[in-house]
């Protein structure tokens, strides 16, 4: 009996740890996968927010922005290359997530810009963030802070050319 109780307790603990490590969120028909950021230098004027957002519903939704106690404001941005010039601009109308589509916010393409962080983001910490969607409303997530030069969540190797904003992936 004692062995069974210990086994059940261990299984419960493993399930809790596994779900905590998954770092995924749901808001209505939207699934938000592994929000993350990079560690920043002292006095950095901005920080980035990255994640995947999948629309499992039948109607489009739109990421409008967000808020965090860790920065003055949160904006949705797009980075593009025009010839040899990299241009970044806020998306005033937000970022549409079409039904059946996954939009990946990554360095070098679509991303959240956290303006005027209160303090540097340090590797290993979590930054609270509330995302605002047109239909799904507000959802609280945490940005897992990775290395300053991270290319993807937890050391992932997503290169700048791997940005996704396409259906079926």
TrEMBL record:
Signal peptide: 1-22
Residue numbers spanned by region Disordered: 146-169
InterPro entries: LpqE-like (IPR007410), Lxx211020-like (IPR058248), PCuAC_sf (IPR036182)
UniProt keyword annotations, A-Z: Signal
Keyword field contains Signal: yes
Record has Ion transport as a keyword: no
Protein's name according to its UniProt entry: Copper chaperone PCu(A)C
């Amino acid at each position: 009996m004692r062995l069974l109780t210990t086994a059940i307790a261990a299984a419960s603990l493993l399930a809790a740890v596994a779900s905590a490590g998954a770092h995924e969120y749901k808001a209505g028909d939207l699934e938000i996968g592994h929000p993350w950021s990079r560690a920043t230098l002292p006095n950095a004027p901005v920080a980035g927010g990255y994640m995947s957002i999948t629309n499992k519903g039948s109607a489009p939704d739109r990421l409008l922005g967000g808020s965090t106690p860790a920065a003055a404001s949160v904006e949705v941005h797009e980075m593009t290359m025009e010839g040899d010039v990299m241009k970044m601009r806020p998306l005033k109308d937000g970022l549409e997530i079409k039904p059946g589509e996954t939009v990946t916010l990554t360095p070098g393409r679509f991303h959240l810009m956290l303006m005027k962080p209160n303090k540097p983001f340090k590797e290993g910490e979590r930054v609270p963030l509330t995302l605002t969607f047109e239909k799904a409303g507000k959802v609280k997530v945490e940005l897992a802070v990775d290395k300053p030069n991270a290319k993807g969540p937890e050391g992932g190797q997503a290169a700048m050319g791997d940005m996704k904003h396409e259906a079926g992936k």
